[in-house]
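Encode chain A's predicted structure.
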Amino acid sequence: MAYKTIQLLLTVNENPQAEAVIDHAIEFARREGAHLSVLANAQRVDLPGIPLLPLANAIVAEINDERLAKAKSLGGHVETAARLAGVNIDCAIVQLAADEAGTAFCAAARLCDLVIVAQAKGVLLAEQRLIEKVLFSSGCAVLVVPQEWDAGPALKNVVVAWDGGARAARAVTDAMPLLEKADRVEVVCVTDDVDDVRGAELARRLSRHGAHVSVANLPFIGAEAGRTLMQHIGSMPVSLLVMGAYAHSRLMELVIGGATNVMLNEARVPVLYSF
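Encoded structure for chain A:
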């Protein structure tokens, strides 16, 4: 399998646009010889069911007009940068409310091999909910790039978070084109069982693909797999983390803590998620 269509999803509002995710997507597509498809949503402000004074209506319309103009300018910038890099690209600009954008983003994601999005800040932001919507409903792997990431789509040291579950297995398969290219792949199992062999079993599979694999069993830190992973990837240079998303329900992860919730909000390296 090879990535031949990359979908970059952008949300345009008053927040600064993360250049890192744009640069990452363009370089990723260039390296893979893939087509880059961009969908930018100039997020529409709606106040349904609330009667507004004419002045308030005018303010909302002005905000929406400014967002649409910003999205069109951004689309032109992305198209120019991609073509200068030798990447084939198409770019669509829409103006949808957050719920409508989730549906449109999922529809676009189903027509590609990999989705790339910028990391959101905070669990209650609309951007965070959009990422989760695409994860849950698109059927496609999602690569989330931190806004401060400036190392590009390097593949020097890739970490696979492995629990032997179905979602982790899906993530490994979705990431296989990257694992085969990586200089080094480390399979990490968060477990208190010193005799846990799940990582070694996966390592044998990856080695048949030509990956250079090592295995690490990490004891839980404070009973949270997410915190354990965060500390581990923070202790060395990591180019990419590969993991399944929400092995527990999202509600349970919010209540008791979980690796996906921690990584979506706090990861400082790109993370490829599959659900």
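Confidence is low (pLDDT under 50) at residues 250-257.
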